[in-house]
Amino acid sequence: MNPVNYFEQEGFLIVSKKSKEDVARQMSDILKYYPPISFNIDDYSRRRNFEIFYAKLKKCYPDLFLMDMYGVNYLWQHIENYNALSKNGGMSIKKSALRIYEILLYLNQSIPYLKRLDEMPTISVEKETTELIVGKVAKECTHNKIAKKVESALSLAKEVCDLINVEDVERYYKNLKYQLDKESALKNNNRCEYENILYMKCMYELEKCKKNKLLSVVSGVDNVKEIIKES
């Protein structure tokens, strides 16, 4: 299977060592060395251009991406293999360069989707905020307007759920944790330092989701009805 297709199918993680802007700039610089190889020129010039292309890439790739990540390292192994095939005659220089270019193009297209830790989704609604909403609805309810009370209770339940949006955040971190576990298994259950940080981030956010899901239930219709009865 094409390495890019396999990488995408397995959902391997990409971690950059630099900002998105720096990675994009350096990737663009590397990619510009590819076009001369694809031109219809003599073998010597093609080989020379390929060597420049590969040398630039070999220098930049480990500086741009965290090589401890399974997927990033997997793609690099294929890049090295294509380079070796171009030298031993197993693959033409033009085809080897194209295969490497396809990998780089995929990575380059992924750059806009990279997120710093502080840009990853999180739950922003805390207990104090939820209790404030519950108190407000309970205070506005009157004894002689049961219909209004129930309507307010239903509105509260929806408002809390919409505000927290726990399910989407929980799904995000469950998927990320699953991917981290899968890639760790492929590396004999070893995690690099950054993978440990990501894993702790997942566990922290999942715990927050768990607590906030309980809050949304406790602050929902049934609980508000009890508050109404007591008011």
Structural overview:
It is a single chain. The mean pLDDT is 81. It is built from eleven helices and no strands. The termini are far apart. It has 231 residues and is mainly alpha-helical. The chain is 75% helix and 0% strand.
List the main descriptive attributes of the protein structure presented here.
231 residues, mainly alpha
Strand pairing plus helix content: what structural class? mainly alpha
- Molecular shape: elongated
Order of helices and strands: HHHHHHHHHHH
- Counted by DSSP, the helix tally is 11
Major sheet: none
Number of strands: 0
SSE blueprint and pairings:
Layout: H1 3-10, H2 20-31, H3 35-38, H4 43-64, H5 70-88, H6 93-110, H7 127-140, H8 146-164, H9 166-186, H10 193-218, H11 221-230
Helix pairs in contact: 2-4, 2-6, 5-6, 7-8, 8-10, 8-11, 9-10
Concise structural overview:
By secondary structure, this protein is mostly helical. It contains eleven helices and no strands.
